[in-house]
Write a structure and sequence with these properties.
- Chain A: Its EC number is 2.5.1.18.
- Chain A: Belongs to the GST superfamily. Theta family.
- Chain A: Keywords: Detoxification, Transferase.
- The complex is a heterodimer of chains A (250) and B (205).
- With 250 residues, chain A is of the alpha+beta class.
- Chain A has two domains: 79 residues, Glutaredoxin (3-Layer(aba) Sandwich); 139 residues, Glutathione S-transferase Yfyf (Class Pi), Chain A, domain 2 (Up-down Bundle), CATH 1.20.1050.10.
- Helix content of chain A is 60%, strand content 7%.
- A four-stranded mixed beta sheet of chain A has the order 2-1-3-4, covered by helices on one side.
- In chain A, a hairpin with a 2-residue loop joins strand 3 and strand 4.
- Chain A is globular and about 60 Å long.
- With 205 residues, chain B is an alpha+beta fold.
- The interface between A and B is medium-sized, with 29 and 29 residues.
């Protein structure tokens, strides 16, 4: 087994690559690199990817990073990958490149910092940053609107009117799944208005079942932990409110 | 029907596409869209690209936007484009995808943030924002270091250590050239961050 995938399943693009490998029966070894423990900053991992980012792969002596580049490489290099993931037709393929490029400066630019600065930062030893979150939210919302009104406007179940998923669906849906860890109110406010987007997420999940749910387990566990923390914090606040009320009753 | 390239030459990714067409003898009609006059927001241009961004192309009935996607499409669709621009070898090609992707969240963000929050701020209905400019300079400086120490590693003068330019060199260099819009003192200070390797790459191109 020459293919190694360096991944942290809390990382959106890592999940896209793992799900792709599983869906296509690609033989690989998953090497877990925990961002929360700083394992991406070690000199061992720097040998694999000097940019110290996940995911990264090695295939024999070949090393590669950036998830879109990895997905395209795997689609081209491994036999048995169905054409719909990365079609051979130049025009269809170009449109997939177009949405993957758009993703970097739009959906990811909004979603990743919003989730990080409202929720995830403390897990990685950093403070929450409400200002950065406030700057990211309109980019996220605008991107979801563009998905709803443009990228999903044709009749198919997937992006660009496709009836089967491509690497673009996998990449973008894994990004949006990160919103699961948000406070439920925020998630409902941001994602709620976009019905087509929600349906498309479900379509992608079903098309990549059971791997989608299995690979997202880590994220869902984090979601549960964060929800419990929020409930606890809310209860404690309620308790201290009562204490403040007592002197006035007396 | 000739290829149409919707263009605004002050835009870095537009220049990459135009240069690519000219260098490869691809016949095209350049349709100028003046961003300063908000021509990219007209209903006519929205028909071409509903996301109102440049560059965009129309090739027969096929419409496409996002400069990297356009460069790849042109390299694959037009005969006579030399292999070094977008090699057919899967390993070389993947490395080009890797640097093009890295570019979005790294180099591109630097000059764009600096220029949009200083000299061209009024075009985007913004005021000069020294904080954002400082942020942009940090991003640019980090990206240029990575280009020096990693992407230009190897024997050749171009990205990924090769001897002939690819679409990645064109895309990244056009972004660095955007710094020409700054006043001379700022430009010299920032371009001073480039060392011999980067200059060689830019001038060879």
């Amino acid at each position: 087994m020459t293919l190694k995938v360096y991944a942290d399943r809390m990382s959106q693009p890592s999940r896209a690559v793992i799900i792709f490998c599983k869906m296509n029966g690609i033989d690989y070894e998953e090497i877990k690199v925990h961002i929360s423990k700083g394992q991406h900053l070690t000199s061992e991992f720097e040998e694999i990817n000097p940019m110290k980012r996940l995911p990264a792969i090695t295939d024999g002596r070949f090393k590669l990073f950036e998830s879109h580049a990895i997905l395209i490489y795997l689609a081209c290099a491994f036999p048995g990958v169905a054409d719909h993931w990365y079609p051979a037709d130049v025009s269809t393929r170009s449109r997939i490149h177009s949405v993957l490029d758009w993703h970097h400066s739009n959906l990811r630019r909004g979603a990743a910092p919003y989730v990080f600065n409202t929720t995830i930062a403390p897990v990685l030893g950093r403070p929450l940053n409400p200002q950065a979150a406030a700057e990211a939210e309109p980019i996220l919302s605008s991107s979801l609107s563009k998905l709803e009104s443009f990228w999903l406007k044709e009749n198919g179940r997937f992006l660009l009117g496709g009836n089967q998923p491509s690497i673009a669906d996998l990449s973008l849906v894994c990004e949006i799944m990160q919103l699961e860890v948000l406070d439920e109110k925020d998630r409902a406010r941001i994602l709620g208005p976009h019905k087509k987007v929600q349906q498309w997420i479900e379509n992608t999940r079903n098309a990549t079942s059971p791997h989608f749910d299995e690979v997202h387990k880590v994220l869902m566990k984090a979601k549960e932990k964060l929800q419990n923390q929020r409930l606890k914090a809310a209860k404690n606040e309620g308790g201290s409110d009562m204490k403040k009320a007592l002197p006035s009753r007396m | 029907m000739k290829l149409k390239v919707y263009s605004y030459r002050r835009s870095q990714p537009v220049r990459a596409v135009i240069i690519f067409c000219k260098v490869n003898g691809i016949e095209f009609e350049e349709v100028r869209v003046d961003i300063a006059k908000r021509e990219h927001c007209t209903p006519e241009f929205s028909e071409i690209n509903p996301l109102n961004q440049l560059p965009a192309i129309v090739d027969g009935e096929f419409k496409l936007f996002e400069s990297h996607a356009i460069l790849i499409y042109l390299a694959c669709s037009y005969p006579g484009v030399a292999d070094h621009w977008y090699p057919s070898d899967i390993f070389k090609r993947s490395k080009i995808h890797s640097v093009l992707d890295w570019h979005h969240s790294n180099l591109r963000r630097g000059p764009v943030t600096i220029v949009q929050n200083s000299v061209v701020a009024p075009v985007f209905h913004r005021t000069f924002n020294p904080e954002r400019v400082a942020e942009g300079e940090k991003i640019l400086s980090a990206a240029l270091s990575k280009i020096e120490s990693f992407w230009l590693e190897g024997n050749g003068p171009f990205l990924l250590g090769v001897n002939q330019p690819s679409i990645a060199d064109l895309s990244l260099v056009c972004d660095i050239m955007q710094l020409e819009l700054l006043d001379e003192a700022d430009r010299n200070r920032l371009l001073g961050l480039l060392t011999i390797k980067s200059y060689k790459m830019i001038h060879r191109l």
